[in-house]
Specification:
Bound molecules: adenosine-5'-triphosphate, magnesium ion
Structural class: alpha/beta
Distance between the termini: 69 Å
CATH class of the largest domain: Alpha Beta
Helix content: 40-55%
Order of helices and strands: EHEHEHEHEHHHEHHEEHEEHHEEE
Radius of gyration: 30 Å
Number of helices: 12
Number of strands: 13
CATH superfamily of the largest domain: Histidine kinase-like ATPase, C-terminal domain
Number of domains: 3
Mean pLDDT: 85
CATH architecture of the largest domain: 2-Layer Sandwich
């Protein structure tokens, strides 16, 4: 049951409105003037306040101001007299959720209450999601996250994300609230992908292997970035090896590996450059190997940082989780492949992925990633 504080100096009004509100399921507390109202508000913290505007002593506008100072998210509905347009506007400017005119029509009151209820609900979701995100980020930051915890976070995150998206579509939202709902939806998406990375990294998501043409997969990934690469002044050269046997891999996860590598390459070429993608089938190597090399002409990686690029959370970017290469290497390792990074500062970077068509039987590769200074 929702608490509601009703402030009005006229006793009959308090009685009649009180009865009506109780019949609507509210737990009603009443005050006979502004001062008593503020005191009760501080003691009871009701989410909704209904206040008369014209009262001796502290008037409704002052009550509204004080309540908003104490608790901005409280919904205050102001009751004004007929023709008090100036006061009504003033109330709205002071962030009243609504105004209704005296004598109060039940219908107008119930519409105003419904809107206020919706807003308090909005406020609660916004507050809860914010707290949730803060907690999740803290947990992740201190590295105390277990697979179970990751799952536990992922499910409510989906719910919060879903509600935030629904909130954005609500017609009754105020401008600021729509923005907040948008921010929450975006942050939830970011955290979801982060949690996915963690689950992937910890081996919680099984591989779904299917036969795949690696050249086709890479072409498709490149196509995703077609526009962005052009916009960034990056040209693409490809050299696809012929007769590369189909390979049994998890298409989605392998796609993510190449997406990560290409995004890193794009980030490194701030002033444009060239992205080269080369695939070849190396029969001389045992076991037979499909080699994919992705090179950029970007800023390169300093030799003392090269060893760290696969470390979880290592990043030199302001907005980067530092999990991109960590997760990519783990995916490749689980395909029994290898991943290596070669780089020279100021010249560029090459990432080499090696997979083998028969590698289902390959023994476990201890160190699947290496970084080499050129
Ligand atoms: N092609 C590249 N050129 C230059 N530096 C690179 C390249 N690829 C990776 N790095 C360096 O390695 C770091 C780690 O890369 P990784 O992909 O793991 O994380 P990230 O890109 O920083 O963040 P995200 O989690 O968003 O991918 C980068 O911050 C960057 O310093
Ligand atoms: Mg990255």
């Amino acid at each position: 049951m929702s608490k509601l504080l009703l402030i009005d100096d006229e006793e009959p009004v308090r009685k009649v409105l009180g009865l009506y509100l109780r019949s609507k399921g509210y737990e009603v507390i009443t005050a006979a003037d502004g001062k008593e109202g503020i005191e009760l508000f501080q003691q009871e913290s009701p989410p909704i306040v209904l206040t008369d505007v014209k009262m001796p002593g502290m008037d409704g506008i002052e009550v509204l101001k004080r309540i908003k100072q104490i608790s901005p998210e409280t919904e205050v509905i102001v009751i004004t007299g007929h023709g008090d347009m100036d006061l009504s506007i003033k109330a709205l400017q002071l962030d009243a959720s609504d105004f209704i005119t005296k004598p109060v029509a039940n219908e107008a009151l119930s519409v105003a209450l419904k809107r206020a209820e919706e807003r308090t609900e909005t406020g609660r979701v916004l507050k809860a999601s914010h707290e949730y995100l803060r907690q999740a980020e803290k947990l992740i930051a201190i590295g105390e996250i277990s697979d179970k915890v990751a799952h536990e976070i992922r499910n409510p995150l989906m719910v919060i994300g879903g509600f935030a998206k629904r909130l954005r579509k609500k017609a009754s939202l105020r401008l600021g609230e729509e923005k907040y709902a948008g921010i929450i939806a975006n942050e939830v998406t970011r955290l979801e992908s982060f949690m996915n990375d963690i689950l992937l990294y910890s081996g919680q998501i099984p591989l779904e292997r299917k036969e795949l043409n690696i050249n086709k997969l890479i072409s498709e990934v490149l196509l995703l970035f077609d526009k962005e690469l052009t916009q960034r002044g990056i040209s693409v050269s490809t050299s696809f090896g012929e007769s590369i046997p189909l390979i049994r891999v998890d298409r989605k996860k392998l796609g993510e590996v190449f997406i990560n590598i290409i995004i890193n390459a794009m980030h490194s070429m701030e002033k444009g450059g060239n992205l080269t993608v080369q695939t070849e089938y190396i029969k001389e190597k045992i076991p037979n190997t499909t080699r994919i090399a992705i090179s950029d002409t970007g800023k390169g990686i300093a030799s003392d940082l090269l060893d760290k690029v696969f470390d979880p959370f290592f990043t030199t970017k302001t907005v980067g989780s530092g999990l991109g290469l960590t997760v990519a290497r783990e995916i490749i390792r689980r395909h029994n492949g290898t991943m290596a990074v070669q780089s020279k500062i100021g010249k560029g970077t090459t990432v080499i992925v090696e997979l083998c068509p028969e590698c289902r039987v390959l023994p476990h590769v201890e160190k699947a990633g290496t970084s080499v200074k050129l």
